[in-house]
Amino acid sequence: MEFFFFKLCDRLRRYGLISSKGVQLEELIGLFLMILGHAVGIRVIKEQFQHLGKIVSRKFHFALEKMMMLAFDEIKPPENYNDYIGAIDETHIHAKIHLNEQIPYIGRKGFPTQNSMAICDFNMREVLTIHIYSWRHYEILILSFPNHHLLYKYYLVDAGYPNMKGYLAPYKGERYYLPVFHSSDQPKGERETFTYVHSSLRSVIERCFGVWKARWQILADMPRYKFDSPVAIVMISMALHNFIRRDVVAGIEFESHEENEDYVQDDDESYINPTIDDNEMRVVCDKITREFVL
User: What is the mean pLDDT, run by run of 10 residues, along the chain of 294 residues?
Assistant: First the structure.
């Protein structure tokens, strides 16, 4: 990881993150990564790095601004892909929000969360993330997600999404999650076989979320910042996830989740109005299903 750290320092210099009087670049990035990786507060950073709290706070937010430039460069769609572009899903990050501002952020979990939709490729790298402000905003966002330029390409989604152009969902009413198959009989029939393969491919995003959340502990205990800062932290942590994946590849978190196909995050299954299923994508689904028996 030392290689990763110094390569990250070199990369951030391009965005104007440089040493200043009293705080060297490497020290600044070190304290930033310590906050994200271990969810420590300003008091711990003050003692560890021997700086005043107001200096730590100011430098952290300065680094946050520059790190966003890294996020815009690192989180982007791949240049080449198969018919299935990647897997798409949502995840929840616990949010600390003032009581009078909580209602738009309370979903099925019953407490405020920052809800993010993400797409990952099949190398466990995030290629897109969008912050979702409310459940109604989420449904509108999914149904208008820009995929019209990707002719005959599609994202793999779970059964809570509609089968519509650009999204390939499994058959409704069939067994789906891999642990269910592994703890009972193997798939039977064409539809269940398709569903099993679909689940196996789409599980990459569950494992991707698992690695990401295991590495960046701040996602489990987000401090009470102004709300634009937590959104930035989510994006930056995803960008760092990609940076590590591309330049380091191996690591305890990646290895453990790559080997565990049964990993399922504890978020609820997505739910968008299933009555809008599209015949075109159902034809694609049936075509793939028939190929399993040829």
Answer: 85 91 91 93 88 90 92 79 79 80 74 82 80 50 49 78 81 74 75 85 89 91 75 90 76 56 54 57 81 64
Question: CA–CA separation, 234 vs 255, rounded Å?
Answer: 22
Instruction: Report residue 260 CA to chain centroid gap.
Output: 18
Nearest to 114 by CA among 283, 232, 245, 266: 232
Contact residues for 80 (Cβ-Cβ < 8 A; gap 6+)? none
Structure tokens belonging to residue 264: 């399922």
Pick the closest to residue 286 from 275, 278, 179, 119 (CA basis).
278
User: Which of 114, 113, 31 lies closest to 67 in space, CA to CA?
Assistant: 31
> Considering only CA atoms, which of 270, 284, 283, 289 is closest in space to residue 87?
270
Q: What is the spatial distance between Cα 195 and Cα 157, in angstroms, rounded to a whole number?
A: 11
Residue of 156, 161, 141, 137 lying closest to 274 (CA atoms):
161
Q: Which residue has the tokens 């509108």?
A: 140
| Residue 13 CB neighbour total at 10 angstroms | 13
